[in-house]
Amino acid sequence: MKKKEIFFIAGLLVLAGVMWLGFRLSGQRSHNTIRITVDGKEFGTYSLDKDQVIHIGDTNVCEIKDGKVTMIEATCPDHYCMKQKAIDEHGGSIICLPNKVVIEGEDTADSSESEDSPKIDAVT
Ligand SMILES: [Zn+2]
User: Which whole number is the average pLDDT over 93-118?
Assistant: First the structure.
């Protein structure tokens, strides 16, 4: 019986930890994300917290580094998208007109999100 109780409590702790972690991750993601669309269709959303290189179809390549997004490769003739200002946590957008690629930074400075985070920090 005692062993079962220990397992039960351990299970609860693990569950609480996973939920806490999941909450943290989802909260973080909503603060710094970019949305990529190609020809008006959603290609994907990515977190600015994770450094990575994203190949957008066969035409464009963008890079997330240090919380900033820049277009590093493009097949378009003008390469205007590669000269555009990097997207950071304050939002912004990079548009490649010839390839119909749009990268949008999601400015998530809305009050409901930022109100939640300090409460969690206070608990931990
Ligand atoms: Zn371009």
Answer: 74
